[in-house]
Design goal:
By secondary structure, the protein is α/β, with parallel strands linked by helices. The protein contains 17 helices and 18 strands. A seven-stranded mixed sheet has the order 3-2-1-4-5-7-6, with helices on both faces. A seven-stranded parallel sheet has the order 11-9-13-8-16-17-18, with helices on both faces. It has a two-stranded parallel ribbon with strand order 10-12. The radius of gyration is 28 Å and the shape is elongated. The chain starts with a helix and ends in a 14-residue tail after the last helix. ATP binds at residues 268-273, 358-361, 442-444.
Length: 470
Amino acid sequence: MTPSHKHRIARRFDAASGYDAAARVQRIAAGHLAQRIERACPPPGPKRILEVGCGTGFLTGHMRLLYPTAQIVATDIAPGMLEQTRARFRDDPHITCHLMDAEQPDLTGPFDLICSSMAAQWFVARRDTIGRLAALLSPAGVLALSTLCEGSFAQWRDHYAALDLPCPMAAYPDLATLEQDWPQTGSGTWTRETIVEVPQSALTFVRELRAIGADVPVPTHDARAEGLRRVLKRADSDATFSVNYNIAFGIFRRTPHSGVFVTGTDTGVGKTLVSAVLARAWDASYWKPLQSGIADEPADTSSVAALAELPPARLHPPAGVYAASLSPEDAAACEGEVIDPDRIVMPHDSSGRPMIVEGAGGVMVPISPGFLMLDLMERLALPVVVVARSTLGTINHTLLSLAMLRQRNIPVMGVILNGPENACARSAIERHGKVRILAEFPMLEDVNAPAIAQLAHRVPRWETLRHPAA
């Protein structure tokens, strides 16, 4: 399929009349895809959804019912089809309609779910397009597709072949070919279902294809009316004539990032020390997304590098660095900036090591208007290690932090306590917070690399902690 042929198809879809009445198979396929999505994305489900090739909104409706609080961006290449979706969901503030060619997406993401029902068969470069869409997924995000596959319209094709006529329909891929289209950033599977329709006549079948805008022949086809009449006559003489739609359903999940997000119950509770210990204990890499306060003390990246004795290759630069010792939002404002959360992207680390991500302050620290440190944790989809003081007041602060994390369904790997041993505080946090105390670190007289190496022996091995409970 060429780009010009694809746009010809888009214009035909735009001009299609009576689409909803004729698109019975598309409606069924959307429902079956929604069932697979529900299994792949159980409650609480995705927060941000991108739909590709929404048509008149069959799958959009299912997504709204399954995930009523999700923000849905419904896209299509055909303005007329998109307008029908916009009209259908006009009063829903959670649904945005956006004109877009799926093969050249102009949205930045990340999305927790990207879905498309019966549109991928029109892609010019299917593998490249699937790769571009998968790149818009959040860590552990899901790409769910349905498309026509090998064997569709078998009887209709047979009638063309029996008359020694070229069939105008495109050749669709088999499941093995589709499996090769998944990108290396995750893993996916394809399954197949067959939907069979028995039209009133062969002409009814052709008219319904035209009604849904799917009657554009392949570019090389010589569309002569005489040939179509012969096929219609032969099909109508076949008492067993039916139309089969072989539909492939694909579910792909992006690989989640490997690592932890280190947060604290307050500022100054020892997040940087803990980050250095974890980096040393787990032979990990380190990233501080937002750094403020460099006018008053060394940047945390340089401190962790020295304490954990990390080589430069395992250090990743912050997305933003600010002088004032304030929240990232206020520190950036002092320099006339507003932090764009979409620019805070997990750095690529090909080493396979876990990543220690150190936050700024606690879970409710502001990053930008309407975006808190908690939102960044949710977006990065890493399990969280909470750093807390062991002294008086820690129970309340720690349980509040844990409650906020659990409210967002962010997995908590455990808590690390800094300071004098406090058995009562430890017990209360474990019991009421339903969380594991990963380690207790004493106050250090000298914070240096040898001391960090000693504390690293107190931390459980990474291999035993990779699958925390939410």
